[in-house]
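This part of the workshop introduces the protein records we will be handling. A learned vocabulary of local backbone shapes supplies the integers on the structure line. Getting from the letters to the tokens is the skill we practise here. As an example, a complete record with its sequence and its structure tokens follows.
=====
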Amino acid sequence: MSTPVLKNRLQSDLTDAIRARDQVRSATLRLALTAVKSQEVAGSSARELSDDEVLAVLRTEVKKRREAAEAFAAAGRPDRAERERAEQEVLESYLPAQLTDDELAGLVAEAVAEAAASGQTGTAAMGRVMGLVRARTGQRAEGGRVAAEVRRQLQG
């Protein structure tokens, strides 16, 4: 099995960042590649991650940076919060473009209508609607955003 394209791109971009002496980018890419390698050796046997699995690792790393930035900002450490946000931006550049709020609302509205047509309404339809929406959004919307919009539309 060949090395996933995204992992190769991360490694190549790390080399470029080191050559350019871009400390934030190189440190962030090192951490991301370490997280990918940790996932590859987790479990009973080592394996190479697919591009989708690498994206999932990057998404987790983005979430960690966002939460850390919020925590540092709340603790009165704007310097550290800014560093975390800079790292988050580097990682987000490797993720697929996210759906806008309007696009997401439209997809959720379609799924709510489908669920209602099959007799499922209100919060009882949450699981069905989430399944429909996740299948349509794929990696283009975070689960938390999707769940919040589904909840909002099912209650309203």
